[in-house]
Specification:
The complex is a heterodimer of chains A (156) and B (499). With 156 residues, chain A is mostly helical. Chain A has six helices and no strands. Chain A has two domains: 65 residues; 78 residues, no CATH class. Helix content of chain B is 74%, strand content 1%. Classes of the chains: A mainly alpha (156), B mainly alpha (499). At the A-B interface, helix 1, helix 2, helix 3, helix 4 and helix 5 of A face helix 8, helix 10, helix 17, helix 18 and helix 19 of B.
């Protein structure tokens, strides 16, 4: 085995710890459940299975990380990830405060487009708005699905 | 032949003008969305699920079938022309198909994959129609413990047996099972893992999970590594039609691919990768033109593509007769049924024969429509590939978020979508398979309720799982399938062919 194969993978260890934390959360949640019927294994059985399974898998992933067995990864560019998640956050906040989905959708379109390397934010904002209007009319009027409405949507 | 009588009855449902229209719309939508790079059939169905949920059940399930088959056709077009297979099942097609496109033979590559898909789809759908009544007869004899054991087999084969790493596959599965716990437990009325959030009491929506993992996750992943990996579209040059030579070299691989694809898809063995790579390896061995492999051999497109489609139709066998999804796409189809409160399985065949057989009959019709649409219209679909990548992914995210809030108008649903998107990104980056998460979410609660039903009938005695011969056999198979990949390191080699 070449020496680089033996390097400890820190990200892999973090994954193993996260799995352990999830197992703990499932177990803790399970302890608050009550058994109602003496013959039924009840709502606790499955969480116990899942929790134990996650602990074993955390160990398995941990061993793989210590051995450096994880697959190769490319270098990571954080900027586009932040742009896309930022766009999603704008959309969520706008809908939560009753701003409707159209402005948020336009912003999401523009930030995603920027994340993929376009440098025409205002043009994309406009395109996003047009798409939002078309989809709104399609969903709300043709398919009678309700989308969260804000001031702009009431004009249509 | 009871199957043919039922099929004829189904055909009379499928050829009603409205249902033909639904099938046509499904086929068009499926191909159009499936052709977009990075969108496989599972995401195609997931994205279009919310759009259909106010429509008539029979019609929209026929539409799904069209979307499903259409997504498969569209996916192979993308695999051949850009070499970015939307899912692992198209990987084998992409190998030789993209080389053919680079050599200026993109037209015949698309044609052999379309006709091969038609041949395989038709034979496999026929297989489905013939096999379904027998399986239904068998399935009515299944007790809850047998169902539980069957699901254990599906869990193991989908996640551990044939993947690169059984540990990572099982990790994905258990994340899915964990997500399946969230919400109110129907049998006891208590909420689990809900933390007082009202949206979490109603369980996690399969569509939100699938769209998050596949659409948002894929967008984040592609964007994050755009600086290392650029996609390139091959133009379709020259004639679209296959020469006499092409036909001669294609028809046997089509039939052999079907023979690989259908049985493996119909067994709860998970995924279309195995039959496609088996078919690829077989064609490579049997070909009279071994010098072409590695430079664009038509057999290497015809065989795997037929295997891919036959196995897609094959997965409908356990899905319709047992309610058992064995691929991400089948899980999405199941979600489509559940959206209308329909549960596939032997009962559905007894209670709604018109719907089930109408669906099977409309699969034949959808398949025929796809052949007619795809050969002459392929130029139109290819133009969809010319959409600039920034707009394409921006559009996908806009549609994904809108579909999600249209189904559940709440910002919490969008937060979940985002969280699943980040999860999907991390899973891609660290090479965890995605399909077991979706299968775990949708099948976990079903397996739990079957287990609890079995144990309450036996008054809590767990030996009931081993006393039924069916259940004992199935649990043995599950155990072997779980241990095998740890003992024999070779099972993952089907995937290694891609290098």
């Amino acid at each position: 085995m070449p020496s680089q194969h033996r390097r400890i993978d820190v990200a892999g260890l973090v994954i193993a710890l996260l799995l352990l934390a999830l197992a703990g959360m499932v177990w803790w949640d399970m302890t608050k459940l009550q058994l109602l019927s003496p013959y039924d294994v009840g709502p606790k059985a499955m969480p116990v299975i899942v929790s134990i399974g996650l602990i074993i898998l955390a160990i398995g992933n941990g061993i793989a990380a210590l051995r450096g067995d994880l697959p190769e990864r490319d270098s990571l560019d954080w900027k586009p990830i932040i742009l896309i998640l930022g766009g999603l956050a704008c959309l969520i906040i706008l809908i939560a405060i009753g701003g409707g989905f159209m402005i948020g959708t336009a912003i999401l379109f523009a930030t995603t487009s920027a994340a993929f390397g376009r440098r025409a934010f205002l043009v994309d904002l406009l395109i996003g708005a047009v798409i939002a209007v078309v989809v709104y009319l399609l969903f709300a009027k043709l398919l009678t699905l309700s989308l969260p409405a804000g001031p702009l949507e009431h004009l249509l | 032949m009871e199957a043919f009588v039922s099929l004829a009855q189904g055909l009379s449902v499928a050829i009603q003008p409205m249902n033909l229209l639904f099938a046509l719309v499904g086929v068009l939508l499926g191909t159009a969305v499936g052709v977009l790079p990075g969108i496989g059939p599972a995401l195609t169905v997931a994205l279009l699920l919310p759009v259909t949920f106010k429509l008539d059940p029979a019609g929209s399930i026929i539409m799904f079938a069209g979307i499903y088959y259409g997504g498969m056709y569209g996916g192979s077009t993308t695999a051949i022309l850009i070499n970015t297979p939307g899912e692992s099942a198209s990987m084998a097609t992409a190998l030789e198909g993209n080389l053919m496109a680079k050599a200026g033979r993109g037209g015949p590559a698309l044609a052999t994959s379309a006709i091969g898909s038609f041949v395989a789809g038709t034979f496999a759908t026929l297989g489905l129609a013939l096999l379904a009544p027998y399986l239904v007869d068998l399935a009515v004899r299944f007790g809850p413990e047998d169902y539980f054991a069957l699901m254990c087999v599906a869990f193991v084969t989908v996640s551990a047996t044939f993947g690169d790493s059984p540990v990572r596959g099982l990790t994905s599965l258990f994340i899915g099972l964990l997500l399946g716990l969230v919400g109110i437990d129907i049998l006891s009325g208590q909420s689990r893992l809900s933390f007082g959030v009202p949206e979490l009491y109603d369980n996690i929506e399969v569509t939100t999970l699938a769209v998050g993992l596949f659409a948002v996750g894929e967008a984040l992943y592609v964007a994050s590594r755009r600086h290392v990996h650029e996609e390139k579209l091959e133009a379709v040059r020259g004639s679209l039609w296959m020469t006499k030579e092409d036909w001669k070299r294609s028809w046997k691989p089509w039939l052999r691919g079907t023979l690989f694809g259908f049985p493996i898809g119909a067994l709860p063995a998970g995924g279309a990768e195995i039959p496609t790579f088996l078919s690829y390896a077989t064609e490579k061995k049997l070909t009279k033109h071994p010098e072409d492999f590695g430079h664009g051999a038509i057999e290497g497109v015809a065989g795997p593509e037929a295997a891919n489609n036959a196995s897609a139709a094959g997965t409908l066998v356990p899905l319709l007769t047992l309610g058992l999804p064995t691929s991400a796409t089948a899980a999405m189809m199941l979600a489509g049924f559940q959206q209308y409160g329909l549960n596939p399985g032997p009962l559905l065949f007894a209670e709604k024969p018109d719907l089930v057989w109408g669906l099977i009959a409309s699969l034949f019709i959808a398949n025929g429509m796809l052949l007619v649409l795809n050969l002459p219209l392929v130029g139109l679909w290819v133009r969809l590939l010319a959409i600039p990548q920034p707009w394409l992914y921006a559009g996908i995210l806009v549609f994904a978020t809108m579909g999600t809030i249209a189904a559940n108008p709440s910002p919490v649903e969008l937060i979940m979508l985002t969280v699943f998107g980040v999860l999907g990104f991390l899973m891609r980056r660290f090479d965890f398979p995605i399909a077991p998460v979706v299968v775990g979410l949708i099948l976990g609660p079903v397996a739990e309720s079957q287990l609890r039903r079995a144990l309450s009938i036996s008054l809590g005695d767990p030996m009931v799982l081993l006393q039924s011969p069916i259940s004992a056999t199935l649990l043995c198979i599950a155990l072997i399938a779980l241990v095998a990949p740890f003992v024999m390191k070779g099972l993952g080699r089907f995937k290694a062919v891609e290098d």
